[in-house]
């Protein structure tokens, strides 16, 4: 077997000198925002199927994902004085093209506590909350705000972007089923105007639901033993922009790691799967479907997951370890041995595909950039400003280098974090 230091050193050199990383990033961003079910996602899928097979030197398996698809239609908000403002229907919002009218309830940040404090005014009202920097300590996810509003009886839900620049924010809401309410993202500027005006507002949304299928892309290289490490990234995104940070950066970094380690993996104790998931932006559907449908023996053979999501656009890289037993120590040890600088966030954030691995009891982490750096370019996630100019190729290479160190350690070391029961995994996910 190759020695671990030698494997990592060779991989880091291949990443450092790779001419493909910039080309892959440009090609993937050129496919468009890759919103699930669109021609943009299909173009990306075919490009990535070819590129992943080339990088791994093996066939790519296509895992079909059945899901309730949705096509976004126009959305708008009409203020009490008749002014009409553009909006973006949140993913899978119910279609109410004629609009729903209610008293605007400004719930500030929009935490569940904020909405509870608004009291009876929420019932039948249109609740306005604020989006916030997504990769930071104390972040309250949009869906928690949405769920709190609808549970309190709101008739509609608006979320205003936290960044200036007339940038309506997007993201998922519910599933469009019974009990869900129309929801849309608006710009910071529109939110300020509505909050100052008050009164009744009318929220109109449109969208079409239909059964759909998508495809996860999986390529596998066996190691010397039966277990394996999964290196994952999601390739779907949102249509207002190119989804360059979220998550072309992670996909390209994952491919670079796989290509750099391809020849060494057969000499390592554990094999490597490259998993490019889709429908992640819709409540992590793609990876959840994949893990649920795996043969139990194949699922049991997964020893670790390194998930790359939004790994460029900021100055620092952080491993979100989520309190899974032993994972933070594993990251600390790997960073010290490899000489890489990695931050660690111990709190769990169920906002990327690593959460589904943890729910199965599989040790996992998410690598991301810009954690607790609200001035970084990650402030533009889920807006039309998530464009290629926000990413430097050197950032992708740095992320790929850190991911390579984690993957090599997970594939090589005898003592990596142990699996826990699915019950314990679900407790960690919360």
Question: Your description of this structure?
Answer:
The structure is a single chain. The two termini are 40 Å apart. Helix 7 links the parallel strand 10 (228-234) and strand 11 (271-277). The mean pLDDT is 96. The protein has 13 helices and 15 strands. By secondary structure, it is of the alpha/beta class. The protein folds into two domains: 4-68 and 211-429, Aminopeptidase; 74-205, Glucose Oxidase, domain 1, CATH 3.50.30.30.
Quick summary of this structure?
With 430 residues, the protein is an alpha/beta fold.
* Class by SSE composition: alpha/beta
**Number of extended strands:** 15
Number of domains: 2
**What CATH architecture label of the largest domain applies?**
3-Layer(aba) Sandwich
The CATH superfamily of the largest domain is Zn peptidases
Strand content: 15-25%
> Which word captures the global form?
elongated
CATH topology of the largest domain: Aminopeptidase
For this structure, the quaternary state is single chain
> What is Rg?
22 Å
Q: Helicity, in percent?
A: 25-40%
Taking the alpha carbons of the first and last residues, their distance comes to: 40 Å
CATH class identity of the largest domain? Alpha Beta
Question: Which properties best describe this structure?
Answer:
430 residues, alpha/beta, Aminopeptidase, Glucose Oxidase, domain 1, 2 domains, 7-stranded mixed β-barrel, 13 helices, 15 strands, elongated
Write the layout of secondary structure elements.
Layout: H1 4-17, H2 20-30, H3 39-56, E1 60-72, E2 75-78, E3 84-89, E4 96-106, H4 112-118, E5 126-130, H5 142-151, E6 156-160, E7 183-186, H6 188-197, E8 200-205, E9 207-221, E10 228-234, H7 244-261, E11 271-277, H8 285-293, H9 296-300, E12 302-308, E13 317-320, H10 327-338, E14 343-345, H11 354-359, E15 364-369, H12 393-412, H13 422-429
Helix pairs in contact: 1-7, 1-12, 2-7, 3-7, 7-12, 10-12
